[in-house]
Amino acid sequence: MPVLRNSLRTFICGLAALATALPAAAGDTLIMGVLPRRNPSEMVEMFHPLAIYLAKELGQPVKIETSPSFPEFAKAVAATRYDIVHFNQMHYIRARKMQGYSVVAMNEEANRSTIRSTIVVRKDSSINTLTDLRGTTIIFGDREAFGAYILPTHLLRKAGLKAHDYKEEFAVTPSNVPLAVFYRHADAGGTGDILLEMPWLQDKIAVDELKLIGVGDSVPHLPWAVSPNVSNQLKNNIRNALTRIKKSPDGEAILNAAALTNIIPAKDSDYDIVRTILEQVTSDR
C-alpha cells in the first residue's frame, strides 16, 4: 500500500528530525510544521490538501510534519526545523523572541478570528460558578496549550483561585478536554470556546449536556508564521498564498479538510494581549 507507506514515512520524519534547518532557497522542499491539536496522524491528513495547495502556489515542494506532543513540537520550533509553522499563541510569542519567527496569518474557525477561554462542567453538576471549583479536579489540554491551559488558568486567577485551590490533570490532546468532562473523568475542563462548536465534537458527545461557568477575554486565533531562514520574498509569497486560499478554486475543500473557515492576515502587534496574559499567568507559577 504505497499511499499508506508514504504517509507513515512523512509522519515518522516529523517525529525524528529536529536538526536546525538551513536557509530555504527557491526550489527547496519547505517543511510545514503543524501543532498536534489532535492526534498527529489526523493532523497530517487534515492539512495535506493545504500542503498541496501551497506547493502549487509557491512552486516548490511542501512537506507536512508534526510531533506526538506539544513539548516535542516546541523543540522542533526552537530548532527552527520548520519553514512554515502553524502553532499556538504561546509558541509564537516564544519563537518570535528566541528564534525570530514572523507571523503572517491566523486561523478563522467557525467564522471567528478570535478565541476565548472557557471553563466547562456537566449541566447535572452542582458546580455553578468559578469559585465553586475549589477542591475539584480540573482537566486541561497540556501545559503548552494556550487555549486549553494558559487562557483558562488566567480566567481562574481573575476569579481569585490559586494553583493550590484545585487539582490539575491533563488530557492527551486539548480536543479531549470536553470528552473527559462529559464522561466524568474530571469535575471541570479548561478549553477554548470554539471547540464546543465543532461538528466533529458534536458528533461524539451531547454538547448540550455541558455548561459554561466562565468565559475569558478574546484573543487572536492560532497564528501561522515563517522561519527567520525564509527570505522576505518567500515570506510574502507564503502570506499571500495562505490568505487567498478561500478565493482559490478548491479553497472551500482545503479549508474544510483543516476544520477552518478561512486564513486571514495577521501582524505581530495583534498578539500583544497574549504577551500580557502570559506574563500574568507565568508570574504566578
Global geometry: globular
Summarize the amount of helix as a percent range: 25-40%
Number of strands: 11
Radius of gyration: 19 Å
Give the amount of beta strand, in percent.
15-25%
Notes on the protein architecture:
The chain has 285 residues and is of the alpha/beta class. 38% of the residues lie in helices and 21% in strands. It contains 10 helices and 11 strands. The strands form 2 sheets. Strands 2-1-3-10-4-11 form a 6-stranded mixed beta sheet, with helices on both faces. The longest helix is centred in the first third of the chain and has 19 residues, at 40-58. The N and C termini lie far apart (49 Å).
Index terms:
5-stranded mixed beta sheet, globular, 10 helices, disordered N terminus, single chain, 285 residues, alpha/beta, 6-stranded mixed beta sheet
Draw up the topology in text.
Blueprint (H helix, E strand, L loop, with lengths): L1 H15 L13 E5 L5 H19 L3 E4 L4 H9 L5 E3 L2 H10 L3 E7 L5 E9 L14 E4 L5 H13 L8 E4 L6 H6 L5 E5 L6 H6 L5 E11 L2 E4 L5 H12 L7 H7 L4 E4 L6 H11 L3
Parallel strand pairs: 1-2, 1-3, 6-7, 6-8
Antiparallel strand pairs: 3-10, 4-10, 4-11, 5-8, 5-9
Helix pairs in contact: 2-8, 2-9, 5-10
Question: What's the quick description here?
Answer:
With 285 residues, the chain is of the alpha/beta class.
